[in-house]
Amino acid sequence: MTPSICHEHNLRQPPPATRPFGVRVSLRRGDPFAKLVGEDWHKLHWYSTEAERDAALAEMSRRYPFFRVGDEPALVFEKVEASARR
User: By residue range, what is the domain housing residue 42?
Assistant: First the structure.
């Protein structure tokens, strides 16, 4: 019997066509974390609507209250569309 996956974000297959709006999260050039995950590391998050994607992007990219003075986010966020999937 094949176990079911209870959390959709754990699926390793491409997202369904019903979620064409995405956010690509990657590292800034020269980030030391790239030595662990590779220079080409990125993560894609897919959403059903532009509004849902834009709200998630605003939340992901905001400056968190626990940042110290001088801390800068190390991630780069960019909007993508389903036609740009790789």
Answer: 17-62+72-84
